[in-house]
Design brief:
Number of strands: 10
Mean pLDDT: 93
Strand content: 5-15%
CATH class of the largest domain: Alpha Beta
Shape: elongated
Number of domains: 2
Helix content: 25-40%
Number of helices: 12
Structural class: alpha/beta
Distance between the termini: 9 Å
CATH topology of the largest domain: Rossmann fold
Radius of gyration: 21 Å
Low-confidence stretches: none
């Protein structure tokens, strides 16, 4: 198995959760000096946003110019084992398109597709740069592809592997274990299942009082960053249901803060996923058992908190950025 030691990483200026998780994890796994951005991005050095858009900001501002020079040197001298295209974003593909034919033949090319679409590169069409996407890969196709929305019931090429999100935020203790909310689901209702869940929650438990209702607007959330995580930690039962894609940050945040996750069953492949009744609770697709499950665990504090604790242990063992990085490096190393 070939060992990957130095990576040239093509990042987007925009926040992309899977790209940011991968960049952070690989920097920890290989050392920041061995994963160099092709173009040093502000998001890696200056904390201009709160969690979760600050996931990638793990480098010091003093590293900016040294990384800038290192990226140019790494490209010109081809002193890298691997080039990673971090996301399905236009600026990342513009950068790749401009240098694809210059990449060392001995280096692996890896593409991380963290978009919402189930087709590989589907976000390139959705976002309007399908021609650029096709042209770039006609110059040098990727050896390995990692896909966030890797559907369970869909066949993918042999070089495509599942890569879900993980928890890249700080570990919080909530309110010292005090649970002040019963049932929470703070989400935008722009997806049918979310609208259905929020309609179902109307008039039940303490949902109206805690803001679990229709008409929420993401930009106007009053729970953001660390405050949001602490509020999740102060909740007995936290719902998770898919957004634009199956994978959501909430799926990882709820176990991370030590609360019970009641979720729809993911339609994507998640290696080392949470188990029903052991790490989390999964309801039926038609939501017919959602009320019963919720009432059951609200009445059984010890059982509920036990599952939540096991969910957190499982997450800390398998679902942090460093675990995604180890998996990425293992797959790349095994590829022919």
């Amino acid at each position: 198995m070939a060992r990957i030691e130095r990576i040239l990483f093509i990042a987007s200026k925009q926040s992309d959760y899977l790209e940011d998780i991968a960049f952070t994890g690989l920097s920890d796994a290989l050392g920041r000096e061995n994963i160099i951005p092709l173009r040093a991005m502000r998001k890696h050095y200056i904390p201009t946003h709160h969690y979760p858009k600050a996931i990638a900001c793990r480098r010091n501002l003093s590293d900016y110019f040294s990384d800038l020079l290192a990226g140019k040197k790494m490209l010109s001298r081809a002193v890298y084992d691997c080039v990673i295209i971090g996301s399905t974003k236009r600026d990342a593909f513009e950068a790749y398109d401009s240098m694809a034919q210059k990449i060392s033949k001995n280096a692996k090319v890896v593409y991380i597709d963290g978009g919402d679409e189930s087709e590989v590169g589907g976000d390139a069409s959705r976002l309007g740069f399908a021609e650029l996407y096709g042209r770039a890969f006609s110059k040098r196709a990727p050896d390995v592809i990692f896909k966030r929305e890797y559907l369970k019931n869909k066949n993918y090429p042999a070089n495509v592997y599942p890569l879900p999100l993980s928890y890249g935020g700080p570990l919080v203790d909530g309110a010292g274990g005090v649970k002040k909310y019963d049932v929470v689901f703070w989400a935008v209702d722009n997806i049918p299942v979310r609208a259905k869940v929020l309609d179902f929650c109307e008039g039940k438990w303490d949902c109206a009082e805690n803001g679990t209702s229709r008409g929420q607007i993401f930009k106007k959330y009053n729970r953001k960053g660390i405050k949001y995580l602490k509020e999740l930690a102060a909740s007995k039962v936290c719902y998770n249901f898919r957004g634009g894609g199956w994978d959501t940050l909430r799926y990882w945040e709820i176990p991370a803060v030590g609360s019970l996750m009641v979720s729809g069953k993911p339609g994507i492949v998640i290696p080392d996923d949470f188990e029903h009744g052991k790490h989390a609770v999964f309801c039926k697709d038609d939501l017919s058992d959602l009320e019963g499950l919720t009432n059951y665990y609200l009445k059984r504090d010890k059982e509920r908190e036990g599952i939540a604790a096991e969910g957190k242990k499982h997450l800390l063992k398998y679902h942090l950025p460093r675990h995604r990085a180890e998996y990425i490096l293992e797959i790349i190393g095994k590829s022919a």
